[in-house]
Every structure is written in structure tokens, then in C-alpha cells.
Amino acid sequence: MPVADAAGMLDFLTAAFGAIELFRMKAPDGSIKHAEAQINDSGVMLGERASVVACSTHVDVPEVDDTYRRA
Question: Per the confidence metrics, is the pTM higher than 0.90?
């Protein structure tokens, strides 16, 4: 998923969903070109883009209310 702040998104995914960061590749300017994280048994790939494309993400979680509070 293209995002404006990949590091911030990775922090959010970790705090809200307990994501585990698997990989991070930075561009010469320090931006995150590509990153991968795992949430339960699902993989998430993201990277920073100059123009962000709207998208949505669906994540199944065992405790919706607890996850929403963390998010």
C-alpha cells in the first residue's frame, strides 16, 4: 500500500495490531521504498510514494474492541 509516512504506518500497525516488521528498504533520500510486516498470518507490504493512492486494508482480529482501543 502506498503511504506518505511508512515509518508512521509501521508504528501504527505495530501498536494497533501487534504487527511484526519483517523488512525495510530505504531509498537514498531516507524514505522507505519498501517494507513488509506481518499481522497474525497475513503479510502487509507498503512503501512511500510522492502521490498516495487511496486504499483500504481489511484485517481480521480476534478481539475487535481491544484492537480498536489500541488503534
Answer: no
